[in-house]
Prior knowledge:
alpha+beta; Heat Shock Protein 90; 3 domains; five-stranded antiparallel beta sheet; 54% helix
Amino acid sequence: MTILIVMLVSSLYRQLIIEQENQVDTHLHAEMQRYQQLALTVNRRSFAAQIKAADPKTALIAWKNSVDMVGALTFLPDDMPFLPETREFPIFTGGPDKLHILTGGLAMTNYGPVLIATRTDQLAILIDKFVNAAFWAVAFTLGLTLALGYIFSKAILRRLVQYNQLSEQIEAGHYNTRLPVTHQQDEFDMLAQQFNRVLDTLEQNLRAVRGVTDNIAHDLRTPLSHLRIGIEQLSQKPIEELADARAELLEELDDCLATFDAMLSLTRIEEGQQQLDVQPIHLTELCQDLYDMADVLAEAKEQKFVLHTPNDAVIQGDKYLLFQALFNLVDNAIKYSPEGSSIEITQDAKCITIADNGPGIDDEDKERVFERLVRLDPSRHFKGTGLGLSMVKAILSRHKATIELSDNHPGLVVKIHFK
C-alpha cells in the first residue's frame, strides 16, 4: 500500500513539474517571437516604448540600449543564456514580497538582446503546498490503513485462537465439538464447514469402529468360550470321543478364522489392494451359473426358484468376485425365506433384481446392513460372520455398480445397476 501511494504521488509530482516547465517554456517562446517580430516592424524608439509599456504580470522585459536600461530591471543579470535555454535569478522589489524568483533567458532581436523572464516562485509555492498536502494525505492513508489492518488482523487472530482452542478440545477426545459458522459466509466459514464435515465423517467412522469392535467381541466370545471349555474337557473324555470333540473344536476355530479372513479380504477390496481380473462378462451367463449353483439350496427348502433373462448385456469386471457377491445375495434370500416361498432372479440389460418372500429389512436398517459385522436380531440364530453384505457392497463399488434395497410385501427386493 505504501509503495503504491508513493508511486502515485511521485507520478503526480513529476507531471506537475513537467507541466510547469512546459507552460514556462511556451510562454517565454511566445514572448520571444513577439519581440523579435516587433523589432522587425518598428524603429528603435517605438521598440523601447513597447518594452516600457509591457505588463510585468505577463512577462518581465528588459533591454539595454546604447544609453541606459529600458524595462523592468536596472541591469541585466550575468551569465543569462539565450532562449530556449533558461536560468532562474532573483530580483528585489519594493512591495510586500521583496524577493521574487524569475526564470528566463535572452532573445536576440534586430536591436540587440532582450531579457524575457516570467515569475516562477508562485509555482514553486504551489508545488510546496502540493508536496505538503501529499505528505499528509499519504500519512493519513497509511495511518487509516494500519488501523483497519490492525482491526482486521485482530478479528482474524481472534477466530484463529478460537479455532485453535476448539482443535485442542477435539484432540483431547471431544469429537462432538464443531467449529462455529457465522452468517458472513467468508473463507473462514467455508473452512469451518469443511472441517465440520470432516469431523462428522470422523465421528461416524469412530462409531462404526466401536460398533465393529462390539460386534467382534459379541460374535467371537461364544465360539472362543466353547473352544476353551472344549479344550479343558478333552482330558476328561474317553478315547473313542476324542476325534469327534477335536473335530468340533476345529470347526469352531475355523469359524473364527473365517471371520478374520473375511475382514482382511473386505479391507483389500475396499482399499483397492486386490487386483481385479477384468474381462467381458455376459450377465445372462453369470445369472445362469448363479441359478445352477443355488437351485440345489432352494430345492432343499422346497422353495420355488425362478430365473428371467429377457435382455443380455456385457460388462467389464471380475467374474469371480461378481459371482461371489450375487451368490451371497441369493444365499441370503434362500436362507431367510421360509419353506415353500418364491425367489426370483431377473436380469434385464444391466439391471439384476433378486426378490424373495422372507422377513425383509426395516427402512431404518436398509443402509446399516452394509456395515461390517452388523447382524440384525432376526438373523442372530443363523450362522454367519455379518460381513456378507459389506463384501457385496465393496465388490459392487469396485465395479462402479449400485445396490438398492426395497420392500417386496412381504420380503426383500435387491436391485443392482451396472454402468
